Amino acid sequence: MVKAAERAKNPARSSVWLEKRAARSGGGPAGLDRDRIVAASIRMLDEEGLAKLSMRKLATELGVTAMSLYWYVDTKDDIIEFALDAVYGEIDLDAVDAAGSWQDRIGALALAYRRMLVRHPWVSPSAGSYLNIGPNAIAVGTKIQETVRDTGLPLHGQPGAMSAVFQFVYGYGTLEAQFGLRAAEAGMSQDDFYTEAVAAFRDDPEFAEQIEDMKEILDERATHGSVSDIWERDFAYALDILIAGIETMVARSQEK
Length: 256
What we know:
Oligomer: single chain
Number of helices: 12
Shape: flat
Radius of gyration: 22 Å
Mean pLDDT: 90
Distance between the termini: 46 Å
Largest sheet: none
Structural class: mainly alpha
CATH superfamily of the largest domain: Tetracycline Repressor, domain 2
Strand content: under 5%
CATH architecture of the largest domain: Orthogonal Bundle
């Protein structure tokens, strides 16, 4: 275990889950606890993003002084780590188990992870900045490993399969979340934003030659209704491709 003050000196061990926190004397502020701090921080992160989260603003949101927060956390990074693990807890692992086959369990995990990333756009840039070793993150990671193990892939192939599926989901969910944010910042629906964004370059004569080979797929996408429908359709199809790829690799390993 490391002390909070020493974490910055050793980034490889920099996690609130590894720190040895000095005990605070006396009692904490009435009506305040870590769960309440984390819930408020998630609301603020969802509404305003990482850049605008501060101890002062969080304290104001909670109706306490900034110093009150230090009974429960040492830094803003602590809060983000706690918040990050809390949203991993939104992934319903019992529902994953109930899905049945490994194919359906991978699908359930992938969809739940993607939806979490979209609900909380700040998670994507945070996930690579922290060790993510809180209890909920570890539970999700363990479930992913168990499910990929059940595919029948050889041990050396299992990490690659996890990367193929869940790094795809991370990228897809990140793009979906950021697109939604940009549309909201423009004061537009995703459908209107997409239509105007495509028209902005498609109708520009200077792009005519460059997008000639893109016209067919742009037209095809336009036939599938809303942007939400496109997100769902493309995600499901891409996931089917990845699962089919795992099935193929399992078959190959059994032929040797």
